[in-house]
Amino acid sequence: MIKKKQIIKIEKVSYLGGYKLKLAFNDKSEQSIDFYPFLSNSLNPLIRKYLDEKIFKKYQLDDGDLEWNDYDLCFPIADLYENTIRP
């Protein structure tokens, strides 16, 4: 019998302070991710604007995806799951 592969989604996001978020996935795993290195090392002003904590804290969970400002900023779910976001 073939096992169905589970599609990984984020179920819950918790703000930890600064630029850190805790993500809870539907397979019951969790990751605490510090987005500061990514944001501060980016040369793109459209990404660097999220260094403003007020803007950063406006993240949303949309159908299992973490995004900001209608997908103005988002990350591949695999990178979030493995905590491998890079500038």
Key features of this structure:
alpha+beta; NE0471 N-terminal domain-like; 3-stranded antiparallel β-sheet; 23% helix
Could you tell me how far the N terminus lies from the C terminus, measured between alpha carbons in angstroms?
Answer: 42 Å
Chain oligomer state = single chain
CATH topology: the name is NE0471 N-terminal domain-like
The tally of structural domains comes to 1
Average pLDDT, all residues = 94
At the fourth CATH level, what is the homologous superfamily?
Answer: NE0471-like N-terminal domain
Radius of gyration, Cα only, in angstroms? 14 Å
**What top-tier CATH class fits best?**
Alpha Beta
Uncertain runs are: none
**Secondary-structure arrangement, i.e. CATH architecture:** 2-Layer Sandwich
Spatial order of the strands in the main sheet? 1-2-3
- In total, the number of strands is 6
Residues in helices, as a percent range: 10-25%
What is the percentage of strand-forming residues? Answer: 25-35%
Q: What is the global morphology?
A: globular
Give helix and strand order, one letter per element, not per position: EEEHHHEEEH
Structural class: alpha+beta
Biggest β-sheet: count, sense, barrel?
3 strands, antiparallel
Total DSSP helices = 4
